[in-house]
Amino acid sequence: MQRKPKETMHRNKPHKRCKSTASDDGDYVPSSLKQLEKSWLSAQTDSNIKDEVSCFDPTKDLYKYQKMKDFPPNQLSVWNKYNRDHLNDNLRVEAESAYLFEIESMEKALFEVKKRGSLPYWACQSIKAWWEGHCLWADNRNQIFHDIFVPRLEKRFIFPEDVIQAHRECYDQVQAVSRIVSGLKEKDFIDDLLQIWKLYQKKVSLYVNLARNQLNLIYHAFFSPQDVVNMRQLQISKTTSTCIGGFIHFVGVDHFQSRVLPRENYPPISWSLHFKKHYDAFVENMVVHLESLQSGKPMRQSQERSLVEKCRKRGRTREQHEHIDFNPFDPIYQVNEDFPPDKSEEWEEDFDDHINANPRCLRNLAHLTEVAKMKDVLTDIHQRGPLKDWEVSSIQKWVHAHQEWVVRAYEIYNLMTNPWISTRLHCPTVLLEGYKEYIELLKTISELVQSLKPGDSLTVLMRKWIEYDQRIKSFYELYNRMHVPLLNAYFGRKDQADFTKTLLAQDAIPGLGATIYHTGKEKFRKVVMKRERIDDVDWHLRFGWKYVNYCETVVIHIAALKSGVPPTSNVGENLLQLDGLWDDPARISEIFD
Question: Which of 54-68, 254-268, 269-283 has the lowest mean pLDDT?
Fold first, then answer.
């Protein structure tokens, strides 16, 4: 007995079918459609969906969905010539399969969580963070279905009501799961969540099977390849990053690049220009939570490792299009619920200025500038020939002064700054490790410098110094992209200003002389101190003499080494002064080039 599509009040009744060639039941059935029916049914291998497929007879049921005589279901033969695999191998089918795969993956992770007992804080936060990302996918999927897909398909055929009902039930389950997830707390058990998750997966699986084995065939029967291309472009333009990233993760990067892109007529360069950033963001903000929930361990390092590799790659190849994404609000960095990451709004008005003008970032910039200038100086010395006595002495004194304040800053960070930060957030592991790595490298360089003798070659030292320069560039890019946004998310203006005053009171801000010199004395005094709410009297008590000392003990040596003239007191203070650095962001970016 033939199954008729359900109809609602807002739907028109189907037109009567044309009867130009009679079959056994008097219906017109193209011979190509009969052949396609056999190939279509034989292609289905999933035992769970064979019953659903067998209920839908394409040689008889398709014409029941016809809405207008001008658009008969006669496109399957065109598709068969165009691409025999397209019925099973197209974006619509693959996207729904990716969505179901995402839900099945989370079910496996929840089973592992249940085995371990009550929820630890980090697991509770990971479930919530993952679900937030999944809801973005669900909302976007629902919007495209109702605003784009259904209205356009209904212009040519009567949309199957059972498919709409199944889609509606999927989204209802999203709301039900959201209510449970939002109420999760530390030490809760997830039996209720797992139970409703199974129902959610069942509803989605039902819809995906209907869409794959019924709607997909009807769709391709009424729409030509060119019609589908036009609609697909519209759907892709409305698809969010999470959906695209999840789809690529499901099909695999290699398959996506080698098969999906050519099949959908995208050039190879579109991977790096458009799609790669969505995949990276999905892995870093979604997959990391699944992995941590399955393993039972917070996996901050997985997310951070990916980010540090990108920064190092950029430092090596200068691929400026490389996408680097970091989420400071990710709950894996939160220590406890008493200190949420809710302070970022305080910094929004002048965030860019803050990135380039707060004392910590200015000190980092001074560090970068010192190292970059010494790299140039070492090149000049090498070109002048064998080392002279005074050159050995000046290099040793300059490197000693540089190492002294850089190592002292590292010690202060471990003794004071990191314990203060750790009261509210987990500092990214890659930053702590990166800090330690370049300090160890600097100590190796210092040993090389102390062993220098007149007449020596600078080849080994220059190689190490170039490595040092590249290492701190990648580190400070990570710092600006991870540490600063995290700090501003968890610590407001007053919090940070109070801590700066604490450091000042204990004379625990190394590198002030270098920071003032490379920022510019007047600009540091009139702008930085004012922004950080530091009294002008501190210039005379704490800052002024550090600036003078830096000029007399450091600047004179690098100026002399640059010029090739032995150092004398107060030699050319302005020789290496970076005038205009504060006002010209382009010159700041040159440090990374």
Answer: 54-68
Question: Cα–Cα distance between 143 and 141 in angstroms, integer?
Answer: 6
User: Which candidate, 127, 135, 130, 146, places its Cα nearest to that of 175?
Assistant: 135
Identify the CA nearest to 159 among candidates 142, 176, 146.
Answer: 146
* Alpha carbons 529 and 516: distance in angstroms, whole number: 11
Q: Please, which residues bridge with residue 334 across strands?
A: 425
Task: Identify the three-state secondary structure at position 451.
Answer: coil
Q: How far is CA 281 from CA 249, 287, 308, 446, 479, in A?
A: 11, 9, 14, 40, 19
**Residues 171 and 142: beta-carbon distance below 8 Å:** yes
Asked if residue 421 has pLDDT above 90, the reply is yes
Q: pTM above the 0.70 mark?
A: no
Report the chain's terminal Cα–Cα distance, integer Å: 73
Give the C-alpha distances (Å, rounded to integers) separating 473 from 304, 414, 438, 512.
17, 21, 10, 20
User: 144-153, 319-328, 433-442: lowest mean pLDDT where?
Assistant: 319-328
User: How confident is the model over 138-176, as pLDDT tens digits?
Assistant: 888 888 888 878 888 888 888 888 888 988 999 899 989
As beta bridge partners, residue 66 has: 157
Tell me the pLDDT tens digit for each residue of 34-70: 343 333 334 333 434 344 444 555 556 677 788 877 7
φ, ψ dihedrals at 334, nearest 5°: -80, 135
**Residue 392, burial from CB neighbour count under 10 angstroms (0-12, 13-18, 19+):** middle
Q: At 151, list the tokens.
A: 């209205």
Q: How far apart are CA 46 and CA 188, in angstroms?
A: 37
Compute the CA torsion angle 134, 137, 140, 146 (nearest 10 deg): -90
Q: DSSP assignment of 158-171, as one string?
A: PPPHHHHHHHHHHH
DSSP assignment string, 68-87: -TTS-S--HHHHHHH-TTTT
The one-letter amino acid code at 482 reads M
CA distance linking residue 60 with residue 73, whole number of Å: 11
The SS3 call for residue 10 is coil
- Please name the residues in contact with 176: beta carbons below 8 A apart, sequence gap of 6 or more: 196, 200
User: Which one of 343-347, 477-481, 555-559 scores highest in mean pLDDT?
Assistant: 555-559
Per the CB < 8 A criterion, the answer to whether 193 and 110 are in contact is yes
